[in-house]
Amino acid sequence: MEADPTAISTVLVCGAGLMGHGIAQVCAVAGRRVFLYEPDRARAEAGLARVADNLERAVAKGRMAAEERAAALARITVADSLGAAAAQSELVVEAVWEDEGVKRALFSELDGRAAEHTIFASNTSSIPITRLATACRPARRARFAGMHFFSPVPVMPLVELIRGVETSDETAETIRALSGTLGKQVIVSRDRPGFIVNRMLMPFLAEAMRSYEEGVGSAEDIDAGARVGLGHPMGPLELADFVGLDVCLHVMGVLHEGFGAQHFVPPPILRQLVDAGHLGQKTGRGFYTYPRE
Is 211 considered catalytic here? Predict the structure, then answer.
């Protein structure tokens, strides 16, 4: 039996940063009521402002009518407490910092506030879903899954659905159906380190970093090799800067811990840049200096 995507009418997005505001945007545009949560209300308001700017650009480019923009924004409510928002939502999507302790604490609190039927989904790019689910009561774990979006969320048409050991078929099908209404293609991954995409991507980025470190080519030539020679829309070093070098280091560490293979070892140049606070675009410097000419 196919899941009914309209079963999810209200979504609570926890985290209003790079990923969270994008998730809130696509849900609101697709007709869902959205709570955008941050414990600091100013951060939640900033996330909503980014959504408003994104939609304004869509109107300016003729991709959306002004009335549609206004309707989508009206569906988003900022929240700095979880109580009412969690109680009214059929789906919670967690998009906070990639730290297991932070995520577990959030899910534990949500478990005590959300309705029994509410589905919990994590946007984690690497932390095991089965392990995160143990932050909740056993009765919740069948309704717990990974829902990994890709950045920028409004543009990237993929959702990686990760099934934990206890994730039910009904939960997986509900997330798949909802993702379709958001304009996303779904791929399903078992709960393994890095899931599908990052398991493929991170060794590629690491090898590009090692090539740069060894002087095989300049950053520009390595990236041009991927763009022109492989047909990639973005080179590996500029992609690493876009993702965030601290995020890359974390995910590579998870992969190396999980598999032990040499090709998952983070390159020394990556550790050095992160130690220096050069995390890519968000700090103005990584393999490149930003803004770039």
Answer: no
pLDDT digits (tens, 9 = 90+) for 173-206: 999 999 999 999 999 999 999 999 999 999 999 9
Instruction: Give the pTM.
Output: 0.93
Distance set, CA 34 to CA 10, 16, 21, 37 (Å): 6, 12, 11, 9
- DSSP codes joined into one string, 91-136: EEEE---S-HHHHHHHHHHHHTTS-TT-EEEE--SSS-HHHHHTTS
For 10, the 3-state DSSP assignment is strand
Torsion sign over Cα 160, 165, 169, 170: negative
Q: Is the pLDDT of residue 248 over 60?
A: yes
The ranges assigned to domains in the chain are 5-190, 199-283
The catalytically annotated residue of 38, 98, 160, 238 is 160
Query: What DSSP designation does 275 have?
Result: H
Told to judge if 160 belongs to the known catalytic residues of this protein, a careful annotator would answer: yes
Active-site annotation holder among 54, 123, 148, 211: 148
- Which pLDDT belongs to residue 2? 60
- pLDDT for the residue 6: 65
Q: Model confidence over 10-55: pLDDT tens digits?
A: 999 999 999 999 999 999 999 999 999 999 999 999 999 999 999 9
> What pLDDT score does 154 carry?
96
* From 89, 123, 125, 211, the catalytic residue: 125
CATH class of 5-190: alpha beta
> Which backbone phi and psi does 282 adopt, to 5 degrees?
-70, -20
* Catalytic (active site) residue 125: yes
* Cα–Cα distance measured from residue 172 to residue 185, given in angstroms and rounded to the nearest whole number: 14
Catalytic residue among 189, 198, 211, 250: 198
Give the DSSP H or E segment for 188: strand 185-190
Fold of domain 199-283:
N-(1-d-carboxylethyl)-l-norvaline Dehydrogenase; domain 2 (1.10.1040)
